[in-house]
Amino acid sequence: MMAWKILFWFCLLVIGYSYLGYGMLMFLLVQLKKVFARRTSSQAPFAFEPEVSLVVAAYNEEEFIEKKIANTFELEYDPAKLKLIFITDGSTDSTAAIIGRYHNILLLHQDARRGKVAAMNRAMDFVKTEVVIFRMPTPY
Q: Which regions of the chain are under pLDDT 50?
């Protein structure tokens, strides 16, 4: 009879630990890590920042392109390591003229419309970084 009581309390303890104990233990460990990390950490949180090319393919986006450019400049990334490439492929509006006002953006304009994939492939000829990010100009 005593063995059944021990087994019951042991199983109850395992279940309690699974639902409450583990979460509480992880919370305490995270809090301890934060306390000790403040004292020893003198390094920036993002020590490794590779050079990145940000490629935006746009077609007749004059309505949204200013917002996209402003959003791009708000990125929290070292501007010296961020290469901006905007592609206008057959745009018939003033998208290329708007982008052309910004001297730190490489504008690749082509009068003939060949499609988004062709535009992105054309941009890859100008990418010199290891990391490439493709963004869409229109909001979702």
A: 140
Is there a contact between 127 and 53 (Cβ–Cβ < 8 Å)? Answer: yes
Report pLDDT digits (tens) over 61-93. 888 899 989 988 998 888 899 999 999 888 889
Q: Spell out the SS3 assignment of 79-116.
A: HHHEEEEEEEECCCCCHHHHHHCCCCEEEEEECCCCCH
Whether the Cβ atoms of residue 125 and residue 95 lie closer than 8 Å to each other: no
Cβ–Cβ under 8 Å, residues 50 and 129: yes
User: What pLDDT does residue 140 have?
Assistant: 43
Alpha-carbon span 139 to 106, nearest angstrom: 22
